[in-house]
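To: structure subgroup
Subject: Chain for Friday's discussion

All,

I'm putting the inputs and outputs inline so they're searchable in the archive.
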Amino acid sequence: MKKKTHDKVTAVIELKITPAKDTGFAKIARRVARYPQVEACFLMSGAYDLLVFVGGRSLQEVAHFVAAELSTIEGVLSTATHFMLKTYKARGELADFAEDSRLAVV
């Protein structure tokens, strides 16, 4: 039996950053947004400053990108990574729940 593989992994990354004196959050946001892995980047209110959507081929690839690239940018104080595991609704469309499966509880 062939192992099922996912075409893409998506993660939401929260970034806490120090704003630059003259450009505020824009300088770091522009730098983050230029990475090809970054699908979207938003300035947010709350505990974190930027909300970044990142795509990759695997959890490891995305985790490596966050550790090696995003977290090393000068002015980035901390990151929090959240992997999207299952989509129930996206862009206003409900997902097909017919194939919904549960994780086994042992």
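Points worth raising on Friday:
The chain has one domain: 9-99.
The longest strand covers residues 9-17.

D.
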